[in-house]
Specification:
Metallo-beta-lactamase, Chain A, 6 strands, about 25% strand
Amino acid sequence: MTGKIMALMAAKMKDTSGCFEPNLYLEDGQSLQEFGLDATVIHTPGHTQGSIAILTAAGGLIAGDTLSNRRKPKTADLFENESELKTSLTKLRGLPVKKIYPGHGKPFSFQELLELTKDL
């Protein structure tokens, strides 16, 4: 039901994609050391085409809206491309992750991600 409500709201929103120009483009595999972070950009399309995650050298994964954990760990409720989302989740499974920090909810373990995505 939430997805239907969100889709209805999104359909009524004005397209604002041309309203600004980013001053920084991040690419898959890009190091963030020049910005003082020992971390790497991971491109994770699916939720949106431009979705990214950030993997720290210590194994923390800032997953954004690709993953959530409001009541239990789960994948994005809303997505632009389900096939790309599945590919991104498979990609995340292959990374040296210890702890996941989702876009919404509490952090959870890599083991929980493996369980969540075991059928991909």
